Amino acid sequence: MQANIKIEKQIQSVLNNTIILNRKYLDDEQLDREEQFKVLEEIFAVDVRDTEIKDMSSHFAPLFKGGHPVHLSLYGKTGTGKTVTMLYFLNLLQSLCKRKKVDMMYLHLDLSTPKPCFRVLNDLACFLDAAKRYKKGISLDELMGKIEDRMKGYRGYFIVFVDEIDHVRRDLDSFLKFLVKRLPQSAPLKLIIIFSSNKLNWQENIDPV
Asked: What's the predicted TM-score (pTM) here?
């Protein structure tokens, strides 16, 4: 039998007997966001992540009684699904808040690419329509002021998901102090910050003040 025929027969045999219908579902990075959410729906429906769902639901339950959940940190190795699971949950939480007439908005700051503090805050300002995309000509403090001014009229829950917080290069302490201390004092919102990181020790080098 000719080699090309053998190869074709072997390939066809594998295709006919495979138990995997679509291999891209073995790697969620090959899926778009909608497909990732569909996968999570199937996973959650069979209680594979029942403990995690209960933990997250319990953490954010105070929103519906006017309470203020504390900030949250997520840890896990690369590829364990921290980002897509949190975004899926926040999307469902936002829908529930809308039905129950609870003012809530959330933002996802994607730091999969390392950035300095200025660039991260500029991303936040752009998401909020508080500023344009800057390359130079504005100080860090002025940029913070623009974000504060934009949020002064918002009195609901404001959830900021900082994905891969350890990728803030330069001025990490300034970034954290702005989010944790300065912004809540200057705007009447109820701020909840979610940090995710692949490094368990990312907090060791930040200023405790």
From this structure: 0.77
